[in-house]
């Protein structure tokens, strides 16, 4: 049999290659990767380079690196995830531990949707095939010495040359993988005896918790979770009992849990409320967990949902508990360098310097007055008498040392490890006992103490030395406050509007469906609240237009014509439309977020522009229905969406 010339050239090159000439990653790229792919017949123009950036978790790409990707086409405009073939990452020639590089390559290969990914130091070569629904498969784990073998080199060439790889149909490969899984699942269902045997491999259901470690086990799925401590980051690991997925462990970090798993809790997999689920048919689901994609049966999907509900509810409860206890909800969270905290207000630089100077003079070791309660630590102000730390105050300065406009800097309520030590080490149910005026100060109390006690004291103490008027120094404080009444204290109907706007902003970017149980009391209460609105309200065309769009979305009919005579519609008609939506959602399991957005816009308009006659009972019902929905939106806008 005649051996193709291209294989001969590849083998000749690989047998003559000397890896000892490689000194760094650039050498691996220029002297090994490029020549190898040249002899594998990949056109140079089908190649592109991409910088590898640091991921959210900081786990990948600690040092910026350049990856190589080969495509089926040399047209740059068409080089995308549909045409990507192979992802290659070069590492240092003398780096022998490749596990971190493999994890990084797997992450980016999944992002670019390549068929294969390769990690090499110019001597070791690890080649993996990406399988959409299962764990990647290692197809070559070799080195230059082994590759000089004629048979191994021929096999390497035949499987990875350009013509062979570009003929692989990504969609067909995915369908075949899914079909194989589906046939296996149907085979198991067809034979009850076999199913009984396999069920003996199921996990034993249980729920255990020790401090911040939670394990929830269902027959098909088990999740072990390290819950977050005091605004720290948790993580979890997911396992499956299925014979098909046995041995697969999926690790999810803090960002994955919040960004992927947290929405759609306590809903069914086929409702479209969970962003990581995609239903393939009645009994099969495609699931995205972290950077892993797999197929689950209906039973596995149910158990996965139950485990996630249990873990994420506790995860969410802890985050909310910390925010409530430390009174941080009304302050913007910031993370910079190795510090994290909340912006309380801002001051001019000279005032901050006086605040620091005062803390230095009144170190708790230098006297026993009521103001000798500071301990200097770095650039922060540490309020402490040496026995208990009350709070840490820090100024946020950019890396370039450029201050905020008008030479102002932000005053930060710092979440310091020392400050939170009692929470980290204390008993799980008792850590809140350390929070208070005599213990750890909350963000709200810290701000109040700074503005009402500390800063006035500092100004009075240095007034003569600073040669600045007291009014001038106080005028340089920029206070950030939420000028709104608490929901429970609202007695003016228009005070509901800011909260409704928060909900509408959340709904506007919400992609998944929403459980109808969360919206049913909301739709009903606000329809009742605005029912007796003066018919002379302006913007009736806007109100009817929104409600018609909801109806069109539900019926899939054509959108009403722009020539609609809005004069024929009255506010009574609008209330009838809202009543229809109340009736509809009471018969639904879930609601489209687009509908909820439009209906919320309608409520906002009526409340802000209408003359409404309402009873105290209706207002109270509206506040009661608003609170859980607003709290859900507040949590997701603060903790979920930033991690997506």
Question: What can you see in these coordinates?
Answer:
This protein has 644 residues and is α+β, with helices and mostly antiparallel strands. 43% of the residues lie in helices and 20% in strands. α16 (516-529) runs antiparallel to α18 (571-585) and α17 (540-555) packs antiparallel against α19. The relative contact order is 0.06. Residues 54-63 and 557-563 have low confidence and may be disordered.
Question: In a few lines, what is going on in this structure?
Answer:
With 644 residues, this protein is an alpha+beta fold.
SSE blueprint and pairings:
Blueprint: H1 5-16, H2 25-39, E1 47-52, E2 65-71, E3 84-90, H3 99-112, E4 116-120, E5 124-129, E6 137-143, H4 144-147, H5 150-160, H6 162-166, H7 170-190, H8 192-199, E7 206-210, E8 213-217, E9 221-226, E10 235-240, E11 249-252, H9 254-261, E12 277-281, E13 284-289, E14 292-297, H10 298-326, E15 332-336, E16 339-348, H11 349-361, E17 374-377, E18 380-384, E19 389-396, E20 408-414, H12 421-425, H13 443-466, H14 470-474, E21 478-479, H15 497-509, E22 514-515, H16 516-529, H17 540-555, H18 571-585, E23 590-591, H19 593-609, H20 616-640
Parallel strand pairs: 3-4
Antiparallel strand pairs: 1-2, 2-3, 4-5, 5-6, 7-8, 8-9, 9-10, 10-11, 12-13, 13-14, 15-16, 16-20, 16-21, 17-18, 18-19, 19-20, 22-23
Helix pairs in contact: 1-5, 11-13, 15-19, 15-20, 16-18, 16-20, 17-18, 17-19
